[in-house]
Amino acid sequence: MNTSFLQKSNEGNRSASLKKEIIRLLVAGSAYSIADISKEMSVSVPTITKLIGELICEGFVLDFGKQGTNGGRRPNVYGLNPDAGFFVGVDINKDSISLGVINFKGEMTEYTGKKTFVLENTFHSLDSLCSIINSFIDKLPVARDKVLSVGINLSGRVNSESGYSYSFYFLGEKPLSMLIEERIDCSVYIENDSRAMTYGEFMMGEESHVQDMIFINASWGLGIGIITNGKLYYGKSGFSGEFGHFPFFDNEIICRCGKRGCLETGASGSAVHRMFTEQMKEGRVSMLSNKFNNGEEITLDDIMDALQKEDVLAIEVMEAVGNELGKAISGLINLFNPELIVLGGTLAAAREYILLSIKSAINKYSLILVSKDTKVKLSKLGERCGVIGACMLVRSKTLGLI
């Protein structure tokens, strides 16, 4: 496929830039006539006709034929060719990895969830990651050269513009994106996991029309992503969203960042795990008591499973964490006055057990005039949120749409 216009538009080529704008329009909608595109872009019909013809020849756009109207001449309508290219998304968690693929229209065609993976800051772990990605791409029912790019989510400090990850796989002078590209022979973009999840929810969630939102990624750690005026907010150095490391508690608990009193120490999956096991050590009873007393490891997944089975201790711990998280979210609402707060990540599976505590704390601690128009919802995308976000974000970056 001829993808040269993707590069040329960055060099000021007007024709290439207009083609990108047409694709941007078709990404946002479903199908448009030439007259519709001309009106939306304020570009003449002859120019749009020529560009649409070129995009069809290049394989990016399809002619869907005549569109029904109430009368008069029916125009042809045009839309994206779903098979023009594919985008792989990789979501790396503490001890698992999920992968998926979307086509050019943004429809997910393949998904593999929660494959066991050990995330370590070593070349061995990096090689293992690349082996998994290569194997996944090789098994896709499309030619490898149809995969235009791969998006990879990592927690912690990730500079998506430079391609460096400073929390994981900071293994030398080369940026991580380049290290992976060398191993999988494909264009690679890396992104902070919370920010990618935010973009996925923004593009594919039930409230995708919202222009100002905050996504809370409450997993083993705690991070946020911010959408303002319809765009992802990165901050000066690309490290925005480190909500979990806000100095919130007056405690002596050492956070994984090395500091004390971070919000993450009392309002995250790691906090749920620590608080639950501390209660077990103090003699509290749970359906996990036998496993604990036998010296077996209690995982966060075990606690989440016990919660779904209405384990009283798990419920109490989750409600306590939800209350602290709700206090902190109140501060975000007072600062940003967002239209929407979305709770995602591992703890979102607790649903009302955590959401009711969060909402109660918001009602108690936020400024009513500021928070009254803010909706608080659970992620619609669930455990696929990270993969969907990685796919959608890498498509937008590859096509120069953001």
Detailed description of the structure:
- It is a single chain.
- Helix content is 41%, strand content 19%.
- It has 402 residues and is α/β, with parallel strands linked by helices.
- It is built from 14 helices and 15 strands.
- It is globular, with a radius of gyration of 23 Å.
- The longest helix is centred in the last third of the chain and has 25 residues.
CATH top level label of the largest domain:
Alpha Beta
Helical percentage = 40-55%
- Structural class of the helix and strand makeup? alpha/beta
Radius of gyration: 23 Å
The low-pLDDT segments are none
Q: Label the CATH architecture of the largest domain.
A: 2-Layer Sandwich
Question: The CATH topology of the largest domain, please?
Answer: Nucleotidyltransferase, domain 5
Number of domains: 3
Question: How many β-strand stretches?
Answer: 15
Strand percentage, roughly? Answer: 15-25%
Biggest sheet, in brief? 5 strands, mixed
3D shape: globular
Strand order of the largest sheet: 6-5-4-7-10
